[in-house]
Each structure stands twice: as structure tokens, then as C-alpha cells.
Amino acid sequence: MWRAAQKLLPPPPPMCPQTLVLTKDSMFLKRPLLLGLIALGTHVWTIQKEFVDISKNHDYLVTSVAFSLAQFSEDNMEEHSQVVGGWAGPEEAATLPPVCCWPPRLTPDRMLLKASLILGLIVLVPHVCSSDFMDIGRRTNYFILCVEFAVFHFNQVYPDEYAYKLLWVRRSQRKQFTFIYLMELELGQTICTKEDEDLENCPLQEGPEEKKLDCTFIVDARPWLSQFFLLNSTCMQK
Predict the structure, then answer these.
(1) The pTM is what?
(2) For residue 196, which phi and psi values (nearest 5 degrees)?
(3) Share above pLDDT 70 across residues of the chain, in percent, rounded to a whole number
(4) How distant is the alpha carbon of residue 89 from its chain centre?
(5) Peptide bond into 103 cis (omega under 30)
(6) Three-state helix/strand/coil letters over 57-81
(7) Hey, what CATH topology would domain 134-237 get?
(8) Cα–Cα distances in Å, from 2 out to 141, 222, 231?
């Protein structure tokens, strides 16, 4: 049946998470993401501010000028270091801090900016790299096809004379930014053999022969190629 359904397959949606209703778990995941974005946004906003006028005697400016002059003199291979005209005279140039003091020491402001950047990266990286599965609707097109494929594959490999059919979907999830689906299904043994095609309308075994299974499947779907791959499967008899 799942093969016939592939012919009616709509074009795949863009690979992005579906809109989900906020739950306690999803809200918990979004809090660190929001915190990381705020921290990074503060850092980016700070470094993108326009230049403002400062005093010529500012410690960091003095040190930067000394470093620039030393670099300039070294590059031009002159005998004497040059002093920028109009900025400092010979006596004031003698009081410039040595180049060995570069870079300037960290101040609380600089440390705060670096801490915000580090905090943002620490919070965002695990969130972006997270491989958690997110809840999706049980009637999602590709999820339904994956369920049908998983049940079909199970019947092909399970060592039983009779076929099993889907009774209930206990869990329906998709891995973020992928078409990998996780499903927890309840399967029931029917009175039909595996060669029968209409398993949905096939009655279940009753009495001592009744069997039900709780199964978990992980299916990787390539709907644009009409391909499905079973990554993992586990089943337990109830």
C-alpha cells in the first residue's frame, strides 16, 4: 500500500522544522537559544557602533600610536623613528609607553563584551548541533508514508506466518532539519498472510492466538526520490 501511495506524493516541503505548539520541553530548548541570541546581538551591536571622538591622551590611543610608529619605522627601515606631526613633540614622544605594552590590558568593559560572546557561543552551539526529535502531527504526509513503509518492512522480515497491521501511533516525531522520522507503533497480528494486500480490513487474531507488539522505528525518508531507509527498529510483545 505504501508503494501505491508514493505515486500521489506531493513535492517535498523546504527542509525546515514544522510549526509546533509550544510545550514545556520545546520552551526549555528555546530559552537557551534566545539567551544566546541576546548575548551575541549585544556583542555585534557594540562592535558595529560608529567611531566617536576621544581624548588624545587616552591610554589605549597613546599605546596604539606608539605601536603604529614602531611598525612604520620598522617597515621603512629608517634610522630614527618618526613622530606624527601635530600630535606630540619630542618631549611628549619620549613619554610614550613602550611597544612591549601592546596589547592593552583588559578592562571590565572589554571582559564583559568577551564574556557575552563566549556565553552566546556556548549556549548556541549545543542548540544548533542538537539532534533531538521534535513532535509532529500524526497525519503528516511523509510521516504516514514512513509508517506504512516500517510496517511493510516489518512484515517482510518478521518470522511469522501471519501479517501484522497498525493499531495505534503512540509517538510521532521528526529530527530537526531532516526527513528522519521516529515512530512508536502498536501492531496487532491478523489472520491474513503476508501475501494479502488489504491488511487494514483484515481481522485480528483472537483468543490464545492474539498477539500485539510495541515497536519503535526510525526511518530516513527521501521523498523526492521515493526512497525510504529503516535506520533502527525494536519490538516487544505485550
Answers:
(1) 0.49
(2) -70, 140
(3) 54
(4) 57
(5) yes
(6) CCHHHHHHHHHHHHHHHHHHCCCCC
(7) Nuclear Transport Factor 2; Chain: A, (3.10.450)
(8) 11, 14, 18
Query: What is the rounded distance in angstroms from the CA atom of residue 136 to the CA atom of residue 37?
Result: 26
Q: How is the chain split into domains, by residue range? A: 33-128, 134-237
Task: For the sheet with 162-175, list strands across it.
Answer: 133-135, 162-175, 180-193, 212-222, 227-237
Distance of CA 65 to the CA centre of its chain: 44
CB 189 within 8 A of CB 160: yes
Tens-digit pLDDT profile for residues 57-100: 766 777 777 777 777 776 665 445 444 445 555 555 555 555 44
Of 86, 106, 182, 198, residue with least CA distance to 142: 182
Nearest to 130 by CA among 48, 33, 229: 33
